[in-house]
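Hi there, hope your week has been kind to you so far. Do you reckon you could talk me through the fold, stretch by stretch? Thanks so much in advance, here it is.
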Amino acid sequence: MEPLEHWQDVLENRRSRYSTSKNERGLQAAPVPRPQSFHKPLAPSKEEFRILHLLPSADLDATIQGVMEHVSFNHHPPYEAVSYTWGDPRNTSTITIDGLEFSVTSNLVVLLRHLRKPNVSRALWVDALCIDQQNSHERSLQVRLMRRIYSSCLVDLVWLGEAESAKVRAFEIAATLERADLEAMRGRVRAMPWQERDRLGLYSDATDAYTVLTRDDWNELRSVFSQPTVWGRVWIMQEIACAPRVILMSGHNTLDWDVIAKFLDSGNYPDAYHAPFHHNNYEAHINEIFANAQIIEHQRAIVRNMDTGYVSRLLDVLARFRFTEATNPRDKIYGLLGLASDAMGIIPDYSKSVGEVYTGFFQAYVNTTQDLDLLCQSPWHFGSMMAPKKGMPSWCPDFANPRLPGPGVLFAQRSIFSSGSEKCRTSCRILDEIYLQVEGVCLDQLAGICGEPERDPDAPYSYLSPLDFIEGSIPKQLRKKDADERPVMYAWTGEPAFQAYWRTILTDCKRYPTCRLDPATLHACSELLESWREGDKPFEYYDGEGGSVRAELYGLGVSVMSELNFATTESGIYCMVPRSAIVGDEVAIFSGGKVPMVIRRQKPGTGANERRCHGVVGPAYAHGFMDGQGAALVHNGDLAEASIFLS
């Protein structure tokens, strides 16, 4: 199976579908204002919350009726919690609570009708009813209790919608799947003649998970584990992760979460810079369908282990669920606080602007970790320099705008690079609510940038390979073999310039797992590329001697070159820089930053104020400056460290 960086693409493609839900879980005004309320004031000192007693009826279409009860964590009846999406706020129905009529979305009414028992009441926690949605102060207080509310329930009922044949069949299929069965079934199907596979509707690629089940089977699994909008809501992630038991519901059909967990990987939890599946362990199609479930199962295991001392970092939690949606952007942080061991002093406060919430988290995180990983290797896009959101400076990650794994995240998690010092020399300072003060050095200005090479219209493929980039970006003086066997040298490392060039293109790394080029790989790649440079034949990745090295070379650079351009600075430093970089941008190394950053001086009148300010363009690779060499230049007096103000 190929690595699952592509699972992020799958989730990203679903975001538009998730965003059709216009109301967030428990944190937005009720769909229809009401003149009177059954919500009596709660006692915060007692950590009170409400439980809905859903009254019985044997008539599925009868009006929903319920009674509200105030409870505390010390005194409450056994209750079930519900995870669902509110649905279209324009499509509403009326229910009765404590004798008062109350308007809710029709999706919630359908859910309650399927939960209602014919002869006895049912104790439930339902956010739209148990939280006074029109009381912002109460919402802020109840948000802080969400983890305990779901941890204290008997079971979390996850509503996937009304019963459909595809969902019912998916429940049946999932109940039969186990990790060992997958391998056994794949082996059995591989032995079939292709004609028999085709007759049974099985995919013919023997290395593919589609050999386990039919096309229809996989499509039915998607109807449960990929398509329902419930998988895309940020609050639901915390709810499922914290509940002691989880049951999926489609109409009156149910599937216990433990059934799914049997064939998912519940160990080796990925951090902020890893995908949810291991490399080469499951088939790509299983990963695609069960990506959401796998992420949640990791978090469920983490929550269980937190009681025994496991540390769940807030950044890892935010990154793990960064592709979920929140109608209120503040909830991209507030909705996940309960899943972290340390909330770093962050308290939900909906009176703060989105910018205040995001910059506040940035400051708290940097002061806790004393590094700039969140700036230099952010799994999110930054605020815009050209059209900044109010209170969202260019250096602050936009937690509502995640980025896919790739060259923009230069391996912070493995400490592959260490351009700056390990820790920040000073605490995180934010001035006038928009200027971030960092300590660092400006290496040089960009003098030339190579764009994406032109694609050959006659080529049998439409993608660009590493050699397309190596050939298309190579400096003129390196295009031919060095004259008189004396190679042009790269001043910053003392190696041949051609070698420095292609190492820059590859960010000096190989994968998987991603790590720096070792001497053996360096030698093998150097021989192949020198041979290619000396000859006139096109480079073939899989033919001739050294085929495995050629194939590996392809894998080394294909993702890096999809988003980064080769560039040179005025002093000849070879770099890989973001596509948005322009000539004149500066390459800087910050104290506490593992990789260099490209920054752009702000023009007067765009926020520069009285300070010399820069906007953030993005992380970069600078050959010869990825392992602390900048600090040596400062020590020798060749560079001066100073305060840099980012806006």
In short: Residues 1-35, 179-189, 202-210, 269-282 have pLDDT under 50 and may be disordered. The CA atoms of residues 347 and 443 lie 39 Å apart. The longest strand covers residues 435-449. The two ends are 43 Å apart (CA to CA).
